[in-house]
């Protein structure tokens, strides 16, 4: 995916817990929020559980730039987190990621 080299980047990540791992994934995501909020360039980082769908989560992140997002993803702690996350979710991390690019009316 491509995003503009300037301007903020929004990431939406949908994740579904493996059967029986719903509470584990919720705890995992909860523990990841504060460190991610403290990464350079983070504007917003919010975790949500989909109402009426236990074990389904949405993480909404905004970063000052793609470079800040890339630095977050390359942080040393991510090398440890991703393998643990894969044990908890259905599919891959990439399956649930959407990068959003803002646009506004010209008037």
Automatic annotation (TrEMBL):
Membrane-crossing residue ranges in chain numbering: none
Pfam families membership: ABM
InterPro entries to which the protein is assigned, alphabetical: ABM_dom, AI-2_Isomerase_LsrG, Dimeric_a/b-barrel
Domain of life: Bacteria
Residues annotated as domain ABM: 9-97
Protein name: ABM domain-containing protein
Organism (species): Streptomyces prasinosporus
Upper classification of the organism: Bacteria, Bacillati, Actinomycetota, Actinomycetes, Kitasatosporales
């Amino acid at each position: 995916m491509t995003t503009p080299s300037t301007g903020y980047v929004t990431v939406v990540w949908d994740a579904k817990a493996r059967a029986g791992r719903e509470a584990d994934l919720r705890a995992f995501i909860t523990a990841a929020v504060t460190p991610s909020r403290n990464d350079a360039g983070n504007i917003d980082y919010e975790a949500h559980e989909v109402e009426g769908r236990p074990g389904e989560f949405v993480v909404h992140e905004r970063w000052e730039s793609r470079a800040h997002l890339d630095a977050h993803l390359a942080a040393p702690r991510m090398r440890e987190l991703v393998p643990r996350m894969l044990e908890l979710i259905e599919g891959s991390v990439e399956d649930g990621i959407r990068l959003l690019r803002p646009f506004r009316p010209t008037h």
